[in-house]
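Incident log entry.

Two folding requests arrived from the same account within the same minute. Monitoring flagged them as a possible duplicate submission, but the sequences differ. Recording both here for audit purposes.

Request one:
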Amino acid sequence: MAAYRQTRVALPMISPAVLVIIVACVLVFILQSTALGQVIATNLALSLAGLTQGRIWTVLTFGLLHGDFMHLFFNMLMLFFLGPRLEHRLGTQKFVAFYALSGLVAGIAFCIWVFLTGAVNVWVVGASGSLFGIYAMWALLWPEEHLLVWGLIPIKVKWLMLILVGGSVFMLATGGGAVAHQAHLGGALGGLIWWYFTERRPPSRPPRRGDRGARRRMRIVKKAEDDRFSDIVGDLDD
């Protein structure tokens, strides 16, 4: 009679901020398919032309919009798998600030690029910028851990991040197609900025004299050099 061992696959427990972000993106995507779709896109999508017209908030809100269902699905899928652990590490409030910073730097990078290229009417949507910030943080905090690409191919996080950044640089240099690779790189930069100022541990230093809790050095003294030696010995004899 053959014996079978049961294998359980553990899914990450979704965290509060990740849940709110996913729900918000899904709701906005549903509204995009209604009569309000054009109004939402105009007021939430990011473009340099929109910024010049005063829609400054779009530097953050563009991450709530998505171009199609697959765009939304894969972004939210990666957020579901990678976001909770990072939120548990940072705490919910800091995770929200980190997520917003990554999206903000991604949006700024996009605007700088379109300004330099003169494409002021090009717009961008999607949470990919913030997700690249998450990828960068994973690569900096847990570089040796493995992720499954397409659920099949194991690869260390540091190598996956190198491939993603290298791919974005290559695609940007060769045209980029309809993908905002500059926003991806900006999001990764946002993750690096957050790590550098909040998570990077400063090198340890030896305690200075006068530091509370500093260790005292011990030295060997001859009996003749210190009269307290006789008192110590006398106490022990008693």
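Request two (distinct sequence, not a duplicate):
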Amino acid sequence: MKILMVLTSHDQLGDTGKKTGFWLEEFAAPYYVFKDAGAEVTLASPKGGQPPLDPSSDTTDAQTPATERFKSDTAAQGALAHTVVLSTLSADDYDAVFFPGGHGPLWDLAEDADSAALIEAFAAKDRPIAAVCHAPAVFKNTKTPEGKPFVAGRKVTGFTNSEEEGVGLTKIVPFLLEDMLTAHGAQYSKGADWSPYVVTDGKLVTGQNPASSEAAAHKLLSLL
């Protein structure tokens, strides 16, 4: 069982001068769900190497059992420091793909042609695809074989407009995820802000927020 995890390489929070990146919990929790299930996990990012960590996800109040485990796991830290360049990978080599969130993907993975092509290849092979929190941004430019938006008509969730408002970044982000998914024809739904909420549509799994990352990973595993 081989699972690919694709993280952002983008570290600038718009023009605020602040840093962003991937959200630690959304990487760590799924990573350990997969590893504990015996999966072989490959980590990738558009630029390769160490992906940027959103500093907001590394504060004391953002820690979870999975993030604490990661901080004492030198093997996992080493794997994260040496992510593979996304463009060098083939969907043929993996059984499933998982995209952790953080605000970074709104800027790079949402516009990344290699990411879109990878998702389209996974879909063509009917292999599970999962994205959590802001990571459903990866579906912005992903198409069906007929050229329609990949999420059109599909049941999905993702970081809500009200959650974005809650973190004060509505005017900073390049687009609001909820609005983009809806505009692309997705059957978007959501749970309560900051509560676990996962939606499955065939082999597509989406989670609303950091609290949904572990449940989304378990759902992905159940599809394998």
